[in-house]
Amino acid sequence: MAIVVGLLSTAEGQAALAAAKREAQERSVPLTVVVTRDDGGPERQAVEDDLASSGLVFSVVGGTGDLAEDLVRTAHDAGAELIVVGLRRRSPVGKLILGSGAQRILLEAPCPVLAVKP
To answer: Which sequence ranges form a coiled-coil region, renumbered to this chain (predicted)?
Structure first.
């Protein structure tokens, strides 16, 4: 069992990461962080350093660039007990034109999904 979250530099992504970290600590389960573009950048290193200093068991995995697909696949592969996602407010037209990654995650997830706002 694990908690799965995506690594995004947005406020929503940071809120999701903080919530996922809390959930993993409270449940005493590993945290799996999905990096949509596995470039080894400074943000990834900072997150890895923070997680290592927290004492959490964690892994960082690369993704394809489609965060919804990556989170669902990783949750399935890891036997996750929870996916954590950050949400932002969007207009009905924005949802229609852009689609909704969060909706895809909610519909396709093999486990419960915790949605957080910044």
So the answer is: none
Query: Helix, strand, or coil here: 85?
Result: strand
Q: What is the pLDDT of residues 1-59, one digit of tens each?
A: 999 999 888 888 899 999 999 999 999 999 999 997 655 567 788 889 999 999 999 99
Q: Please report the DSSP string for 8-69 in residue order.
A: -SSHHHHHHHHHHHHHHHHHT--EEEEESS----HHHHHHHHHHHHHT--EEEEE--S-HHH
Which fold, 3-116? Answer: Rossmann fold (3.40.50)
CB contact at 8 A, 105 and 73: no
Strand-pairing partners, residue 62, are 35
pTM of the entire structure?
Answer: 0.88
| 78, 79, 81, 86 alpha-carbon torsion, rounded to 10° | 40
